[in-house]
Amino acid sequence: MKGSDAGVPYAAYIHPSNADAGAYGMCFVIFPVEGAPCLVAMGIGTQGLAPDETILGRPGHARKIQAICTWLNHRFGSGVQVAWAKQDPTRVDIDVPAPIQNAWTIYERARYGRVL
Predict the structure, then answer these.
(1) For residue 28, what are the contacts with CB-CB under 8 A and spacing of at least 6?
(2) How far apart are CA 35 and CA 5, in angstroms?
(3) In 3D, which of 112, 100, 106 has the Cα closest to residue 6?
(4) CA–CA gap between residue 81 and residue 69 (Å, rounded)
(5) pTM value?
(6) Regarding beta strands 36-43 and 27-33, do their DSSP bridges make them parallel or antiparallel, or are they unpaired?
(7) What's the rounded Cα separation, in Å, for the pair 25 and 50?
């Protein structure tokens, strides 16, 4: 899937069981940004948590994403945070922390509320 919701270009990989159009579940998405590295994210799709809450809610899922972020920050950050993940990916009621939002203002257009 690729597109431009609200003028924000993106490309997303969604599970083949999702429909070709309409709501979709969890996705791996890339937001290209001119003059900066792409924002790469695992996001909750437009369908919301269902039917992926069983995957997202597993403690192992959050630990693996945290481990990936730790590795990215160590390998590519050179002392600067380049990756971040929520402690609990099912908490769509929690926003991205202000320090992350402030540090990554170049990506603010790619935010979809509290799900990415």
Answers:
(1) 12, 13, 40, 41, 42, 43
(2) 20
(3) 112
(4) 9
(5) 0.76
(6) antiparallel
(7) 7
Q: Which amino acid is at 19?
A: A
Beta bridge partners of residue 29, listed in sequence order? 12, 41
- Note whether 72 and 95 are within 8 A (CB): no
Amino acid of residue 57 = G
pLDDT at res. 91: 83
Q: What length does the chain have?
A: 116
pLDDT of residue 79: 92
8 Cβ contact list (under 8 Å, min separation 6): 31, 109, 110
The per-type count for the chain, helices as H runs and strands as E runs, is: 3, 4
For 89, list phi and psi in degrees, rounded to 5: -65, -10
* Stretches in the chain below the pLDDT threshold 70: 1-6, 111-116
The pLDDT score that the predictor gives to residue 77 is 94
Distance CA 108, CA 111 (A): 6
